Amino acid sequence: MGSEVRVTTAVARVLAAFLEDATTDRYGLDLIGATGLPSGTLYPILVRLQRAGWVDSAWEQIDPVEAGRPARRYYRLTPDGLARARTELALLHQQLGGTARPASPKPRPA
User: Fold this and answer.
1) Where are the alpha helices (DSSP H) in 8-101?
2) Among the four 3, 13, 100, 109, which has the fewest Cβ within 10 Å?
3) Count of CB atoms situated within 10 Å of the CB of 83
4) pTM for the full model?
5) Nearest to 87 by CA among 2, 12, 9
């Protein structure tokens, strides 16, 4: 734990999605919709954020047969991850000259 996270555009989109409501647990499909990232990009980012201690995850405790769907794995920023996400996105905003908005978590319509 505690490894550094390189904040790329895709990572910034994931962090921004978490920061929309930092108290809400998010699951993969929810984050895919919020970020516009494909699963092959999103899940490796979540693994890196988890290894760095920025994100925790837990499986939903449901009966898949009763719920009619598979259990979801929920992700949430840790307290350290919350602070780091805010700091990193603020730095990114500052590096962009403060005139550009931070990465939007929602894709633009085509």
Assistant:
1) 9-20, 28-35, 39-51, 64-67, 79-95
2) 109
3) 12
4) 0.81
5) 12
